[in-house]
Amino acid sequence: MNQEAINLSAEAFSPEHASTYLRTVWGLTYAPTTLGKFRSIGGGPSFHRVGNNGPVIYTRRSLDNWVEQRIGTALSNVTQERALGKQPPPGRDLTDFAGSKHKHEAHN
Fold this sequence. Notes:
Blueprint: E1 12-13, H1 15-26, H2 32-41, E2 48-49, E3 56-59, H3 60-71, H4 78-83, H5 95-98
Antiparallel strand pairs: 1-3, 2-3
């Protein structure tokens, strides 16, 4: 891909520039070919086609909305995460960090 600089405040992007925008602004790596696959099978950001067979464009708003839907609700602590029914990562029991549960108690 051409590494030309893009205007990140632009309102519309080609698939190549949309890929760069997602990586630069959100830290997410989606190749232009992946965005193309999403256009075929669904699950990607909404897009527009200029004319019947014209170029595909993504608006900044559609990219931002898509990312915000994928990353979910912003949380400030694990209590909120549990209230939403999310589980701690495998192998991690976060109650140990709160001191309310001790897995490795001494047995006499």
